[in-house]
Amino acid sequence: MPVIRVEMFKGRTVDQKRQLVKELTDAFIRTCGGTPESVQIVITDVAKEDWGGAGILMSDKYPDKK
Amino acid sequence: MPVIRVEMFKGRTVDQKRQLVKELTDAFIRTCGGTPESVQIVITDVAKEDWGGAGILMSDKYPDKK
Amino acid sequence: MPVIRVEMFKGRTVDQKRQLVKELTDAFIRTCGGTPESVQIVITDVAKEDWGGAGILMSDKYPDKK
Amino acid sequence: MPVIRVEMFKGRTVDQKRQLVKELTDAFIRTCGGTPESVQIVITDVAKEDWGGAGILMSDKYPDKK
Amino acid sequence: MPVIRVEMFKGRTVDQKRQLVKELTDAFIRTCGGTPESVQIVITDVAKEDWGGAGILMSDKYPDKK
Amino acid sequence: MPVIRVEMFKGRTVDQKRQLVKELTDAFIRTCGGTPESVQIVITDVAKEDWGGAGILMSDKYPDKK
User: Fold this and answer.
1) Is residue C66 part of a domain?
2) In chain B, which residues have their Cβ closer than 8 Å to the Cβ of C19?
3) Which domain of life, per UniProt (chains A, B, C, D, E, F) (predicted)?
4) How many other β-carbons are positioned within 10 Å of the β-carbon of residue C14?
5) How many helices (H) does chain B have, and how many strands (E)?
6) Is the dihedral of CA C30, C32, C33, C35 positive or negative?
7) Cα–chain center distance at B7
8) Strand, coil or helix: what is A44?
9) C-alpha distance from residue B30 to each of B24, C21, D51, D59 (Å)
10) Domain CATH number, residue F24
C-alpha cells in the first residue's frame, strides 16, 4: 500500500531481483515511512524489441552480440 | 472506458479467467453504471520471482513444492 | 497480491467507489481464490479531456451539458 | 519523459513494432513538442485469453482458426 | 483493444491533447492495423515534482521560472 | 530505461519525494547496474478514497482525524 512497479530489460537474475526487492522496500520505508509488510513490488521484464527510445527499437540500437 | 487491469500470480486456468472477466464486468456495471461493451479488462500473470512483499520475493516466501 | 486497477471517468461518488471495491474484491475471490486481505484495488478518475477513443477526445464526443 | 505504453494483441512482427515506435514518437513530438530522445515507449503483447471485452474473453470471441 | 497510455509533463492544452489522440490513433492503425474505434488512449499529466530522472526531481532540475 | 512507478498515499512532502527518487535510483543501480541517467521514476499520489484493501476503502478504514 504502496505499490512499486519496475519495468526493466529482461536478463537480470533471480538473485538481482531478490536484492532489488529488498533495497527498494528499504528505500521506501526510510524516506516515506510505513512498514515493509505494506510494500508490494511488481517487476516486469521487457524484451529489447518491446522498448523504444528516440523512435528506435532497443533491439536495433543494442543488438545482441553473436 | 473503463479499463480494468488485474495483476495476479501465474497459474489460473483459462476458465478462471473467463469467469473473472465476466464477474468483474458485472460488478463494474452494477456499481458504476455503463454498458458491458464499454468495459475492457487486461490480465497480467506475474511469476512469483517477479513479485515482492515485505522486501522478499514471493518465490522465496512460497517456494514451489517438489 | 492481486492488484486490480480501475481507470474510469471522473464523477463516481465515494459510495459508488465503496461498492465497487467491495464487489470487485468479492468477484476476484469467488473466481480465483485467495483471501480478501490480499486484494489491493487502485482507482484512477480520468477526465474526459484525458481519454480518447476512435481518435477523438471524450470531452469533444460527450461535451458536458450546460 | 514522456513514457508511452501500448498494450495490444500478441502477433505483430518486429518490423511492425519498429514502425510503431517511430510513428508514435513522431506523433508525440509534432503535437506536444520535446525531443525524440526524451520519448520512451514500452510495448506489451497481450494474449487473447488475457483480454476481456463486454465480459467475454477475446479468445472465446475470436478463437484462432484451425 | 489496443490501449495506449501517455504519461507526460502537465501543461499541454486541450488542443494539443486533441491532436495527440488523433495522431497516435492514426499512427497505430497505419503500422499495426485495426480500426480507429478499437483504439483507447488514456493521458496522465504528471507534475514535475512527481517525476524523477537520474535521481533528481524534475522540479529541482527544471524549476518554474519566476 | 528502467521505469519505476510508485503509487502511494497522498500526503508525502516534496522533500520526501526528493529523497525517495534519489534512494530508489541508487537502489536500482546498486542491484541491477546501469547509469542513474537511465532511471525514470513516476510517482502517483493516491487518495484514500481511491484505494481499497480487503474490500474496504482506505478512507473508511483510516478516516482522517478531526
Assistant:
1) no
2) 30-31
3) Bacteria
4) 13
5) 2, 4
6) negative
7) 4
8) strand
9) 10, 12, 21, 25
10) 3.30.429.10
Kindly report the number of other CB atoms within 10 A of residue A15's CB atom: 10
| B2, D14, D17, D24, E52 from D11: Cα distances, Å | 25, 9, 10, 19, 34
Contact (CB<8Å) C52/E43:
yes
Between E41, E44, E45, which is nearest C52 by CB?
Answer: E41
**Inter-chain contact B27–C31, Cβ cutoff 8 Å?**
no
Q: Of B6, B13, B11, which is closest to residue B58 (Cα–Cα)?
A: B11
Question: E66 lies in a domain?
Answer: no
Provide CB contacts within 8 A for B44, sequence distance 6+. B5, B6, B7, B8, D50
Task: ipTM value, please give it.
Answer: 0.96
DSSP E strands in chain C: the ranges are: 3-9, 40-46, 51-53, 56-57
C-alpha distances out from residue C26 to B9, C44, E15, E16, F57, Å: 17, 20, 41, 41, 14
Number of alpha carbons in the 13 Å side-chain half-sphere of residue C61 = 16
The number of folded domains in chain B is: 1
Range of the domain at F32: 3-61
> For each successive 10 residues of chain F (66 residues), what is the average pLDDT?
95 98 98 96 98 97 84
Chain E, nearest residue to F43 by Cα: E50
Task: Determine, yes or no, domain membership for D66.
Answer: no
- Per CB-CB distance under 8 Å, the chain D contacts of F42 are 3
Q: What would the pLDDT profile of C10-56 be if each residue is shown by its tens digit?
A: 999 999 999 999 999 999 999 999 999 999 999 999 999 999 999 99
Min mean pLDDT across A42-51, B57-66, D18-27, F50-59 is at B57-66
- Is the model's pLDDT at E62 over the cut of 80? yes
F-C interface (Cβ pairs under 8 Å ≥ 3): yes
So what's the pLDDT on residue F66?
62
Residues of C with CB under 8 A from a CB of A: 1, 3, 40, 42
In a domain, C55, yes or no: yes
pLDDT recorded at residue C65: 75
Q: Tell me the per-residue pLDDT of B12-38, one tens digit each, with 9 for 90 and over.
A: 999 999 999 999 999 999 999 999 999
Contact E3, E42 (CB under 8 A): yes
